[in-house]
Amino acid sequence: MEAVILAGGRGVRLRPYTTRLPKPLVPIGEDHAILEIVLHQLAYQGFSKVTLAIGHFGHLIRSFVGDGRRWGLDVVYINEFQPLGTLGPVVGARDTLPENFLVMNGDVLTDIDTRSLLRAHVANAAPLTVATYRRQVKVDLGVIEADQGSIVDFIEKPTYDYRVSMGVYAVSREALARYGLGEALGFDRFILDLIRAGRNPSEFVHEGYWLDIGRPDDYDRANEEFGRMRSSLLKGA
């Protein structure tokens, strides 16, 4: 099993923490970088090779990860010299990847079973399988529904449930064949292209722990929760 980790972003939303470090190397719980946790998880779940897509502060990631042998992984690198979106770097590496592989963001803290995700993807013969998580969004204001100038409904401080993408995917290489090398490709375009072509992606529902460390509030929460979640996030460590 092989995985691609997207670690080339600038981490603008997480400043000032990312002023001197790439987001995947920001420490969690003082002892581990986010990327270190991800690599440990992949090795524990049986992945043997990881392709790291790097860009901003990529030399620091190379220095920290090296060839991956301390996790029992074979780590190779692709350099993103200009922003290519979520899947643009994956297109650039597709000829070196197996028919089905994992793709995940390098700033995701989760206890998802990526091995089961990839197996479900293969079993469903899907072009893309998206790991999803239930997220509640509370609106702290009264929400008005109007129709042609008339108010037809009012809900006081509602809570809405959504299934959101976790930033963890299983991808079939052939689904990327239509895109050119060096072409920017966002996840939004990729998934909508598949839907329009009648090749609907599959969903893999995760009910465990997930946190996208995109903002300072998320980072603070990750550090607060890491002690409680450590055994689940670092199985076998």
Describe the structure.
There is one protein chain. The strands form four sheets. The protein has a seven-stranded mixed β-sheet with strand order 5-4-1-6-11-8-12. A two-stranded antiparallel ribbon has the order 2-3. A two-stranded antiparallel ribbon has the order 7-13. The mean pLDDT is 88. Helices cover 27% and strands 32% of the residues. It has six helices and 13 strands. It is α/β, with parallel strands linked by helices. The longest helix is centred in the last third of the chain and has 18 residues, at 216-233. It has one domain: Spore Coat Polysaccharide Biosynthesis Protein SpsA, Chain A (Alpha-Beta Complex), CATH 3.90.550.
Helix content: 25-40%
Query: Do you know the CATH topology?
Result: Spore Coat Polysaccharide Biosynthesis Protein SpsA, Chain A
Strand-residue fraction?
Answer: 25-35%
Q: Under the CATH scheme, which class?
A: Alpha Beta
Biggest sheet details: 7 strands, mixed
Highlighted features:
globular; two-stranded antiparallel ribbon; 237 residues; 6 helices; Spore Coat Polysaccharide Biosynthesis Protein SpsA, Chain A; seven-stranded mixed β-sheet; alpha/beta
Please write out the topology.
Elements: E1 2-7, E2 27-28, E3 32-33, H1 34-44, E4 49-54, H2 58-65, E5 74-79, H3 88-93, E6 100-105, E7 108-110, H4 114-124, E8 128-138, E9 142-147, E10 150-156, E11 159-172, H5 187-196, E12 202-205, E13 210-212, H6 216-233
Parallel strand pairs: 1-4, 1-6, 4-5, 8-12
Antiparallel strand pairs: 2-3, 6-11, 7-13, 8-11, 9-10
Structure summary:
This protein is of the alpha/beta class and 237 residues long. The chain is built from six helices and 13 strands. The strands form four sheets. A seven-stranded mixed beta sheet has the order 5-4-1-6-11-8-12. Strands 2-3 form a two-stranded antiparallel ribbon. A two-stranded antiparallel sheet has the order 7-13.
